[in-house]
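seq:
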Amino acid sequence: MKPLKKISIIGYGAGDAANNLAFTTATMFLLVYYTDVAGISAAAAGTLLLVVRIFDAFADVFAGRMVDKTYSKRWGKFRPFIMLGSLPLLLLTFAVFHVPGGWSANATLVYAYLSYAALGLAYSLVNIPYGSLAGAMTQDPSERAKLGSARTIGAFLIGAVLGMVVAPMLKNDTDLQPIFTTLTVVFLVAGVALYMFCAFTAKEQVQRDVAQVSLKQSISTLKGNVPLLMLCISSLVLLAGSMTLSTVQLYYFRDVMGNVGLYAAASGIQLLLALVLSALMPRLVRRIGKHTVYMAFGGVMMLGGLAVLLAPAGAGVLAVVGVSVVNLGLSGVSIVIWALEADTVEYGEWKTGIRTEGIVYALFSFTRKAGQAIGGALAAYALAWGGYNGAAAVQSDQAILGIQIAAGAIPMVMSGLAVLVMSRYKLTDAVHASIVYDIRERRAAAAAAKAAPANEDCPA
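struct:
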């Protein structure tokens, strides 16, 4: 199989940058928008995030089946979804951050539920094909690590822009609606361009024996795929922890540390760490393997959560260090987790003879969305437990404690559980290489058997 071209790797990274114009904007700022602009209570917003993100998880399964059923001779299985779904996705991002003013509390809540649910469905129909595409571009672990690095850079680049440019603007005494209006309009234009760049440069190379997969075949590839199950469980709890911090990070720097500008510093450090790790990760994967990398950086994330929890209110430097260590661990895990997921596709193919990137990625994304739903809800419930008041310039001591628990304790516990689950993971790089070899040998044998009758008919 040909090595990936640099333009393909860059294009794939551009796709996740586009994804995060919608996704990271929502995860970082939607709770703030709901509580401080739309006037929705923290408890009601927490329930909304939980319900809609669980719906999103089921939307991922639907999108996975749509991917497995679809095939275009010209564009393949995945790129048509990216090309056709990008504009509706980004238009819905605009709609989510424009809750109409002057409505009753119930009407406002209904609009928030419907617009966010529609955004989730649109995101699934773009993100599931995008994520599945990596497994079809290459089977080489080092090349897959490059794709993981590219998408991590794309994601963290957008996160850094949001953290360094947008977050410092979101002060208590500022009219936030014009900020979100400008942001979502700019992202609409930039996102469509990035998606198109991805669709025209990131192409499939991996051979598939079945182009359009039935529901029965999709389910058969999931049965007995223990590595996928373990990766899903670990990812669920890890994402619950990281989402909790991501959701309250603005509150943490603004209300606990008293300096919203620290958000920009943490975001800049996060981007720098992601760039360094992305450059080192292919070499690190070759030396110690993806599984060991996952375990090590999961432990780093756990230590960072402890530092965030113990940082006293007002200790800005320690807070930035703690959040940066959490993000260092998350960056390392994020780079390899996509390659680990792609490996489970080959495991399923090895057991059944059918390659189903769509449903495998959908199940993986389902559990990640469930984790994000739990994490977002836990963050909002922690604010509600503490009595957070969006209209107050200074929060109570209990509100401060609630934010600290969400920012530090929950990520620490969840990352520890994720590492514990992955300690039993058996699909190492060596095992995966053996599986890929077996699949290729089967294909070669099948091709030889198919050609044999024709050869026997030839005159001596």
